[in-house]
Design brief:
single chain; Rossmann fold; 2 domains; seven-stranded mixed β-sheet; two-stranded antiparallel ribbon; 11 strands; binds glutamine
């Protein structure tokens, strides 16, 4: 805990931004490490005579900022926290920082299943920090959710995130590759969602340093054309989905047509391509027969 005058704090902030970086990242650091939200920050400019309370002292905040500027370490990995939808999630280098475009998966699912009282069994394949599965479980307390991940460390983070964001018990965590840990759920799944690694190799090489040097490669790289994991998920889906069960997959901006064909080749019907909020063809959805 540290108390500083608003004036000292605003001068400190000014000094940090003059070193480099962008205001959004600095505000995120001040929020997630210092405990001062963007809204509180804006109020300070109006009431600059007040004192403010921070979770850490300015030197520690500054050392994090310097590290971010020097090594391009994402703020979320420095603070160990990522905000996604209305969730505050623990993250580490074992999990991808959940992306804003992925937030839409929850809205798409809500539109499909308007009747929330239905007993739905859903699975989030490769859950990472647990973002998608936790949001779906919280929005639909009557549903039974399953989250899988190949990385045990990721699964521990996801499970902690669920406990810390709710007191519900409708989400279970299974360790293994894609569908592999779900042998007891054959033909029992109503809905499967996944944000698998889908970046093609040549694009991965060109990703910004803050992604390439810090985020888990196995959560991003989808082989030569980016479709390795998407193919596996679609090909194995028929063994696990109920008749008319849904599969919803996030994909790269230029993969939708190929992904749609993979769905159709594997006997999916009602296959649709959906855009994200930037107008990019980001999701492919279909029903098994
Ligand atoms: N959307 C992420 C990115 O562009 C990739 C996520 C993924 O491969 N699943 O960095």
């Amino acid at each position: 805990m540290c108390i500083v005058s608003a004036e000292t704090f605003l001068l400190w902030k000014e000094k940090q931004i003059l070193k480099g970086g962008d205001d959004k990242s600095l505000s995120l650091l001040i929020d997630s490490v210092g405990g001062l939200s963007k809204k509180d920050l804006n109020l300070l400019k109006i009431k600059s005579e007040t004192n403010i309370r921070l979770n850490t002292d300015l030197d520690l905040l500054e050392s994090f900022w310097d590290k971010h500027l020097k090594f391009s370490t994402p703020i979320q990995y420095l603070s160990g926290i990522s905000y996604w939808r209305d969730l505050k999630l623990e993250v580490s280098c074992n999990v991808l920082i959940p992306r804003p475009e992925t937030e839409l998966i929850v809205d798409i699912v809500s539109k499909i299943f308007k009747n929330k009282a239905e007993n739905i069994t859903f699975v989030d394949l490769g859950t990472g920090s647990g973002a998608i599965s936790i949001a779906l479980a919280l929005a639909n307390p009557k549903w039974n959710g399953i989250a899988t991940d190949i990385n045990k460390n990721a699964l521990e983070i996801a499970s902690r995130n669920f406990t810390n964001n709710s007191n519900q018990s409708n989400l279970k965590f299974y360790n293994g590759n894609w569908w592999d840990p779900l042998k007891n759920f054959k033909r029992k799944i109503d809905l499967a969602v996944a944000n698998p690694p889908y970046i093609p190799r040549n694009i991965y090489k060109e990703l910004p340093i803050e992604v390439r040097n810090f985020e888990p490669k196995n959560a991003l790289l989808g082989g030569e054309d980016g479709l390795d994991h998407i193919k596996k998920i679609i090909q194995n889906a028929p063994s696990y989905l109920k008749e008319k069960g849904f599969l919803l997959i996030e994909n790269h901006f230029d993969q939708s047509t190929k992904v749609k064909h993979l769905f159709i080749e594997n006997r999916f019907t009602n296959v649709e391509i959906l855009k994200d909020l930037s107008g990019i063809e980001r999701f492919t959805i279909g029903r098994y027969k």
